[in-house]
UniProtKB/TrEMBL annotation:
One GO biological process term: proline transport
Species per Swiss-Prot/TrEMBL record: Psychrobacter pacificensis
Keywords: Amino-acid transport, Cell inner membrane, Cell membrane, Ion transport, Membrane, Sodium, Sodium transport, Symport, Transmembrane, Transmembrane helix, Transport
Membrane-spanning residues: 6-28, 76-95, 126-145, 165-185, 190-208, 228-251, 272-298, 318-351, 371-389, 401-420, 427-445, 457-481
Family annotation (PROSITE patterns): NA_SOLUT_SYMP_3
Protein name (database record): Sodium/proline symporter
Family: Belongs to the sodium:solute symporter (SSF) (TC 2.A.21) family.
A family per Pfam: SSF
Length: 499
């Protein structure tokens, strides 16, 4: 094995040991009940909440996808970063404080389906079952997509087989998630978020220095193609809306908003918001600048780059010492693993609370529910590994479609359940179903506009979000508003929010 691979493996080995060590620590620290295992006892500090939400959100897309987008298309990629930033900020302002208070008022809801059912006192369990099925199905595939990234990273950077990378990535994630639950996931996310932030600062900084500074790099990119510096190059109004609409997805992503349910106190939300948004802005800028500098670097060195999304890997290989390269590769793994662990735990939560307890053992003691949760983590991981076993898996579109599906099905439902006192159960069901079906038909239906597939013309989350919102309003008004007990819970939430 060459020196580069040895240095990289030393750094990656140390990283894996730290992650597993955190899982062991969390195992002994947390309470052995469902609130402890699935929600960390609602005792997360603002810094851990913020970086955990950010790290589980961004995945490998931050270090691979976004730099690749900037590399290929230039500064038009800024639109998607602006949309994500605005969506994340509104999520902290609108959803975070209300969801923290209301999930506790709504009979101490542990999962998002749990919250929907308790919020509207849905005795038929329709809301819980539909939302749980959406989460289990989409997140199992979503987890597989993330595992593919881990497998390909090991294959391209360490000359190990794709299958080895798949099993190592899954094995480490399952180890700390299985034992440490939500607390371990959140604590490892915090560490992973710090690593990702460092990588997004140091890589573009060293790259720009190697290229002679920002001005020299910008001039080099201009000489390659002036349109790369035009923020509206090749973009229509619809295209800009599609890119910025990614921000709408934040309101409906279970693995992100569950952090708001777990924060220690609603008074900690502003601090978490400031930390989280600062982390996000710096990270997004770093990712964009990595892709921008990469375009000039590839031109300067006359290398061939077949896949723009590997530009971060190129910099780690050619600009840094092997030990530092290993640390930077750990940043990519951190992004991938933080998302996998969050998704595993969300699916495990739904399988435990919304399937096992609801249909098989309503009186299951807390210890048995925790055991079922741990078994669910392993089962979902194995299914995801099987789905990801093909190294040629094309998962980017699946991730995009899942983001749109969650955003349209759950986004308006979450927002209006927290802000509109007249919403009722029928409106909630209608909004969720209409949002999900709109996205499915928009993506997979045989419809076109100007010769383009609908999802290529306009991102599916836009019509899905709009029609879901309309369905919630129309059906809630037509079917007579919520029961008195539901309205009373909403008033209690408002009172607690203003304390």
């Amino acid at each position: 094995m060459n020196g580069v691979s040895s240095g990289v493996l030393i750094s990656l080995g140390a990283y894996f040991l730290v992650m597993i060590g955190i899982g062991v620590y969390a195992y002994f620290k947390q309470a052995n009940d469902t609130e402890g295992y699935l929600l960390g006892g609602r005792n997360l500090g603002p810094a851990v909440t913020a970086l955990s939400a950010g790290a589980s959100d961004m995945s490998g897309w931050l270090l691979l996808g976004l730099p690749g987008y900037m590399y290929a298309d230039g500064v038009v990629s800024i639109w998607i970063a602006l949309g994500l930033t605005l969506g994340a900020l509104l999520n902290y302002l609108i959803v975070a404080p209300r969801l923290r208070v209301y999930t506790e008022v709504a009979d101490n809801a542990i999962t998002l389906p749990d919250y929907f059912a308790n919020r509207f006192e849905d005795k038929s369990h329709m809301l819980r079952v539909i939302s749980a099925l959406v989460i289990i199905l989409f997140f199992t595939v979503y987890t597989a997509a993330s595992l593919v990234g881990g497998g390909k990273l090991f294959e391209s950077s360490l000359n190990l087989s794709y299958g080895t990378g798949l099993w190592v990535t899954a094995g480490v994630v399952v180890a700390y998630t299985l034992f440490g639950g939500f607390l371990a996931v959140s604590m490892t996310d915090f560490v992973q978020g710090v690593i990702m932030l460092f990588a997004m600062v140091i890589v573009p900084l060293v790259a720009f220095t190697d290229l002679g500074g920002v001005s020299a790099t910008t001039e080099a990119v201009r000489n390659i193609d002036p349109s790369l510096l035009n923020i509206t190059s090749g973009m229509s109004i619809i295209g800009i809306i599609s890119l910025m609409a990614w921000g709408l997805g934040y309101f409906g992503q279970p693995h992100i908003i569950v952090r708001f349910m777990a924060i220690r106190s609603v008074r900690d939300v502003p601090t978490a918001r400031n930390i989280g948004m600062s982390w996000m802005i710096v990270s997004l800028i770093g990712a964009l600048m990595t892709g921008f500098a990469g375009r000039a670097y590839v031109q300067k060195t006359a290398m061939t780059l077949d896949d723009p999304e590997t530009i971060f890997l190129v910099f780690t290989q050619f600009l840094f010492h092997p030990l530092v390269s290993g640390f930077l590769l750990a940043a990519i793994l951190a992004a991938i693993m933080s998302t996998i662990s969050s998704q595993l735990l969300v699916v495990s939560s739904s399988l435990t609370k919304d399937v096992y307890k609801l249909f098989f053992d309503r009186d299951a003691p807390e210890a048995r529910q925790v055991l079922v949760g741990r078994i669910s983590v392993v089962v979902v991981a194995i299914v995801a590994i099987l789905l990801a076993s093909d190294p040629d898996s094309s998962v980017l579109n699946l991730v995009s479609n899942a983001w749109a599906g969650f955003g349209a099905a759950f986004g308006p439902l979450v927002i209006f359940s927290l802000t509109w006192r007249h919403m009722n159960r029928n409106g909630a069901v209608a909004g969720m179903v209409v949002g999900a079906l709109t996205v499915i038909l928009w993506i997979y239906g045989p419809f076109q506009i100007d010769g383009m597939a609908l999802n290529s013309w306009l991102y599916a989350i836009v019509p899905g979000f709009i029609l879901s919102t309309i369905a919630i309003f129309v059906v809630s008004i037509m079917t007579g508003g919520p029961r008195e007990s539901v309205a009373a819970k909403y008033k209690e939430m408002e009172l607690n929010l203003n304390k």
